[in-house]
Design a protein that fits this description.
The structure is a single chain. The chain is an all-alpha fold. It has a domain of 73 residues. Helix 2 packs antiparallel against helix 3. The longest helix has 24 residues. It is elongated.
Length: 152
């Protein structure tokens, strides 16, 4: 962009002489100033990198849970809830009204555990058995409580 096309110049009139050196000198000064201004505003070229320059980004602390991990964790939590429920039933100072919300939580957790257990593969048959027994125990306790087996 060092050459500027002088299309906006007016045609010289026939009666007035124009100095030849001054017009060419003004154009050179303008071109120089424009070139300097463009050099300062142009962004530097980015370095090209090969696609192999970036390595794999590893995530720290990322633990991917499998279905068996989820089922075993939920089974453990459900067993803890059942244990807490059993200790509350043995305590005569705790009313059945206070125990009812715990039993609702047990019922809900047993339902979600059942859904998760259905996703297990045949390789996890022992875990399926443990989870199924825990679910049956939770559902049985819910039915007993609703039926009034624990009324004194």
């Amino acid at each position: 962009m060092t050459h500027i096309n002088p299309t906006n110049e007016s045609a010289p009139s026939f009666g007035t002489p124009t100095p030849k050196g001054s017009h060419h000198q003004k154009t050179d000064v303008f071109e120089t100033a424009l070139g300097k201004a463009l050099d300062r505003t142009e962004a530097p070229e980015m370095e090209s990198t090969s696609p192999h320059a970036l390595g794999e980004i590893t995530a720290k602390g990322l633990n991917i849970l499998t279905s068996s991990d989820v089922v075993s964790g939920k089974t453990g939590k459900l067993l803890e809830l059942l244990d807490s429920y059993a200790s509350q039933l043995e305590n005569p100072t705790i009313s059945l009204k206070r125990i009812a919300p715990v039993l609702e939580k047990i019922k809900d957790d047993a339902g979600t555990l059942l859904k998760e257990t259905e996703r297990l593969t045949d390789a996890d048959t022992n875990l399926k058995k443990i989870a199924a027994r825990t679910i049956v125990t939770a559902q049985t306790e819910y039915v007993k409580f609703q039926r009034g087996d624990y009324l004194s």
